[in-house]
Amino acid sequence: EAEGAVRVRELPAWRMDLRGARALAPARGHATFFSYNGHRFRVVGVAPSRAARPELPRTRTTTRSFRPLSAENRRRIETQRLEVVEARAGESIHALSQRTGNAWPLSWLAAWNGTTSDRVFAGGELVKIVRKEPYQAPEATAGDLPSG
User: Fold this and answer.
1) What region, left, alpha or beta, does residue 10 occupy, with left being phi > 0 and alpha being psi -120 to 50 degrees?
2) How many CB atoms are closer than 10 A to CB 13?
């Protein structure tokens, strides 16, 4: 595909070729810009010049795959929310993880809290955990709505 006007599915788009140097090594890439449902999207792929020929077509393939999410795919999206919980006296990090519904592996839970995976709490310590939950689309605001 050449630089200039292109289509992403049925949407008009603009593709721009990129050339430059990154840390003194030549690089190539491209960026594709398009709008959908009142939002602007940019898909960028950059690679060292020597790797650009095999790598950059993958970016174009990814860009072409853009489509509205089906209801089924939207239901599959999970988010991870960081929360802080209070440890109970005598509670192990493993027990805290189970009690709170923590989604992190124990090694991550320990590392993110600056402790070890065999920790037993005195009680009252604040512990970071992550909970998985279904994605909820934000409420539309006037700035999100198409004009006209």
Assistant:
1) alpha
2) 19
